[in-house]
From TrEMBL:
A Gene Ontology molecular function term of the record: acyltransferase activity, transferring groups other than amino-acyl groups
Keyword Transferase on entry: yes
Superkingdom of the source species: Bacteria
Protein name: GCN5-related N-acetyltransferase
CDD domains reported for this sequence: NAT_SF
Organism: Amycolatopsis vancoresmycina DSM 44592
The UniProt record lists the keyword Transmembrane: no
Keywords: Acyltransferase, Transferase
Length: 146
């Protein structure tokens, strides 16, 4: 059975492992200071938020999200990172995490939730096509080297 809830200090090693898997999928490795910063932000609960999916008590999925202002609506919720362990895929963890973020955002008066994924991420897109609308937008970036 999948349950969704906040992350605890004891979850940090498993969270790091899951987040590393997410980042490997996208071809990147995060510096330890970025992991520490994200964890601190989740703990404060002011700017960044995180939830975990548990399967029989074991943390098997994570979601990170935030809200921001919009010029055309009430605030919106950006679902930034979503990842489930391979052993839990197809068991409802991803869907449950998305639904939990939707409930969180709805309770705070957000107008919508949105996220990005690579067009080649067909596994995730099968779920996303069931739970959300593809509005046809493309993402452009200008990297700002600090």
């Amino acid at each position: 059975m999948i349950t969704i809830g906040g992350l605890t200090a004891e979850d940090r090693p498993t969270w790091e492992n899951l987040f590393a898997g997410y980042n490997r999928f996208y071809g990147r490795t995060l510096a330890p200071e970025l992991l520490d910063r994200a964890w601190r932000e989740f703990a404060s609960g002011e700017r960044l938020h995180a939830l975990g999916a548990r399967l029989d008590g074991e943390l098997v999925g994570i979601v990170h999200f935030l809200t921001h202002a919009s010029t055309t609506s009430a605030d919106v919720c950006y679902l930034q990172d979503l990842f489930t362990d391979e052993k839990a895929r197809g068991r409802g963890a991803g869907r449950a995490l998305i639904e939990a973020v939707a409930g969180w955002a709805r309770a705070r008066g957000c107008a919508r939730i949105y996220w990005h994924t690579q067009t080649s991420n067909t596994t995730a897109r099968r779920l996303y096509d069931q739970v959300a609308l593809d509005k046809g937008f493309m993402q452009y970036q200008i990297p700002l080297d600090a």
